[in-house]
Amino acid sequence: MNQEKLVDGSYEGSYEAGPNKAVVKVAIKNNEIVSIQILKHRAWKGKKAESVIPGIIIEKQSTEVDAVSGATNSSRVIMNAVQRAIEKAYQKEGW
Known about the structure:
Order of helices and strands: EEEHH
Shape: globular
Distance between the termini: 13 Å
Mean pLDDT: 90
Strand order of the largest sheet: 1-2-3
Oligomer: single chain
Number of strands: 3
Largest sheet: 3 strands, antiparallel
């Protein structure tokens, strides 16, 4: 992720795959992901990803992180929803 082009603000993103869906709100400040709020998470079994994945994404400043064991699909929809939100921060800059 090229953080130099991120514009400060809050951005929503969503992603759906099969029975799983996530809607997130991502806050960007000083070219960093500072918070991720899960607004909606529909998961068949993967609710445990909610408490883990956002923190790892913030720590690593990347949406390419390891999935939570037993919650792989939920982890992926959360990661993809965050990525879509971040892409809006790029687009606002004209990327």
